[in-house]
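Reopening this ticket.

The earlier resolution said the output was attached, but the attachment link was broken on my side. Pasting everything inline this time so it's all in one place.
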Amino acid sequence: MFLKSMKIIPGSLLACLAFVTINPVNAAISIDRTRVIIIGDEKSAQINVTNHSKKAPYLAQSWLENENGEKITAPLTVLPPLQRVEKDSTVQVNIMPLPSAAQLPQDRESLFFYNLQEIPPKSDKSNVIQLALRIKIKAFYRPAGLKKIAEENWQEKLQLSAGNNVLKLTNPTPFYIVIPRITIDNKPVTIEDDATTLKPGKEVIIQRVNAQNKSIKIQYINDYGAYTPLLYKCDKDQCAIIK
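Inline output:
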């Protein structure tokens, strides 16, 4: 999950900041998950949006982006795109597949992003800069035909092989596998962004790591946002999962 600031302060204002009160509010608005899965034959996937403020209502603005970070209104849509959340209360946002979702690949997942921008009430104080936060999480469209396979421990099909100072990860499944952490003999490995979200049917190679004859722990994030370990033992270049 990513948090982003809504407003950038121009350099021309920096000289004035000695006379201005900056109110870097903690996020008043939060959601109940770190990822959302939209099933192809279900009407919608729900996200609970909570306003933790005890004093004021907030607006919650929602939108979707594709894998390239471009705003979209199809083949998925989010409703309502803007709503008022009363103080200390929770509302619901629905991500819905449109008929055009049938044009998405039906043999594998597709990746989107759900964004939520909190909009605070206007301050009654003068010379105040309000900073609101944005939440961004992964939204996976999962075709209905994959529901039965998704009930299995499909992440355990992740394949590893160790070469000369490289580690290859192969995802033979139709699902995205999100990998935030890898350790080799209990030492953390630096991984690039393309390795943290392993696409269906794809592979990535992590350079400058020696995994031969060593133990590897892969941590993936399951459908509920929990970090779950997979243990492997590499004998030369062949790595086998330890159940």
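Reporter confirms the inline version is readable. The mean pLDDT is 88. The longest strand covers residues 110-119.
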